[in-house]
Amino acid sequence: MIKIIIIIICLLVSAFGYAQNETLKDSIPNKLEEVVIDAKSKTFINKNGNLKIDVPNSIYNSIPNTMDLLSKLPKIIISSDKENISIVGKGTPLIYIDNQKVGINDLNALAVDDIKNIEIIQNPSAKYEAEGRAVILVTRKFSKKDGFRTILSETASFKKDFNNYIGFNSSFKKGKLEWKANFNYNQLQPWEYQSVDYAIPNASIVSNYNVEAFTKRKQFVFGGSLFYKINEDDYLSFTVSSKLQSDTFYINANTYNKKEDVTNNVLTFTDNASNKDFSNSFLNYLKKIKSIETQVFAGIQYSNFDQGVFSEVQNNYNDTEFGLTQIRDQKFKVGVFLGRIDIEKKFKNEMIFEVGGLYSSANSKSDFDIFDYETNQNILSHYDFKEQNLAGYSQLSGKINKIDFTVGLRVENTNANGRYKTDVTPLIEKNYTDFFPKAEFTFPIDSTKSISLNYSKSISRPNYSSLSQGTTYINPYFVYARNINLDPTISNEISSVFQYNDKSLKLSFYQNTNPVYSSFTYDKEQNILTFKDENFDRESGFSADFTLPFSYEFWTMTNSLVFILEKIEDDSALFLSSKPYLYYYSSNEFKLPKGYTLSVSCWGLTKQHIGAFEKNERFVIDMALSKTFFKNWNCTLSFNNVFNNNVIEEQFVVNNVNSQARYLIDSHEISIAIKYSFGKMKDTEFKGKNINDSDRIR
Known about the structure:
The chain is mainly beta. The protein is built from 3 helices and 40 strands. A hairpin with a 4-residue loop joins strand 12 (191-200) and strand 13.
């Protein structure tokens, strides 16, 4: 009942805002290209279904880290472990910072205080890599004069356990030289819970387990940048960022397993220690040749990710006593080198022609060392994976007879091979070339309305750790595993956007080949069920996406409704049903007297029937109150997932295994954030261009 009341309130808020907006519509500027929703704070701008969020002038600036900030934005969903980002109806997006391609670790190293705006691009052009059907573009802010600025921050977070974030961010500029640095130290205690019921009729197995994980985590996040302005147009920049993480965590599992007439109840205790270390550095050079109106960019980049997990596993069968079962030592390391060049030529008729090339080389190693006390065997395995990518693109954009257009073509060649050290010939050997055309045409109807048509082809590659060996022990009958045999997913999408003032309706249809979803494999000899990602046969979907922002005096709101019909199919999976479902989002910000800002937002999903999978409905409401004191102090009190709606349920049947899973998310939170800033920063010219596949390095 509470959920229904809150949803009704959100809809009434939108309806009231619409009524007020219609009353005051004559005062809203009818500028199609860039419609400002809130004239004072300019929090949201909606253009052709792409949404731009102004961070400094909103309550989002008080959120302690970038991943939590993204989770507050429309259509963006962050996984419970904050290791994956998805956009509703689009899947995993590309991530850019200042037109720099980055990954999750780079976002974790980015201070919220450095963010100017965030743009959710629904139809990225060929200029962007072919990876992904959407782009999250983060633009950093800089001051406008020589000087310095420093921000100190402290956030105390109360979830199931206490979490603490301490941050330092500083900028300094003098003349042609600019320097930026940030450092964060986080002490976190994430908690996870999962229960799975499954049956394997062909093997006469019925089983279930409940597993709970408690973690103590330390994070050091730091980065630095140097920028040198050679002249008015040319520059040279160097950037380095890093995230060092160490975890100690234990996992408790309670398992019931019945095979034919044999029943076992097993308690499993796993003691773990792990590290995740990421570093990224790049050097960029930009040269503008004024005589021919041409700009040339060149850059090189190197990224490294190093992960290790050491585990001791003990089992207690049928209330006897715990006995040491396994010692597990697993390591994974990947390094990526990349170089690219981009050339942009402007013509007198405002046409822009772009051409560029990219080369990347990735090398990963994964070591798998397990000693099994029950069989007295030591299992050693070493797997190496190498991948090289060569890409080129060209793009033409401009206007013909009032019709804006962008057309482009990208070509990518991938050469990959993987082998165990004991193999004579490679186990994985791939060499393929793909073409990725993209086109967008915008037809103005009048000064307030337009229609655009879009087509794009894209690819989604697994991250490098997914393509390595490695398993997680849950109990004697169930393990999680990675999959070295995953293939990339190819997507084709057509869409159309109708824009009226600051409101938009987008209709889109897509088809995916080789989509990646969860699957089971049962080993009869070892009596072990393995849960891992597999390539399914096909996926298709249709969506109707409404973006409805409004504003009235002290009240700014953004509403999003997405009606989705998806179908996921595979010969190994039982097709359950495919029915439409709804994603809804409403964000409301109130500018109150005496400098207070109140934010109330909610989002949710109705029950999802998407072919091979069924998932439960979700509803989350967040609240925050913020105020700035004495100009330099800001304090924010936040309540996230107010009603503690933290359950995710999923069921599917694949490879004759019936599964029902239930996950609990530790998102019910009360936090207090304090920021203190001092110093002044003037005009800055810092520019950078991250050029690597760091989004796959994890």
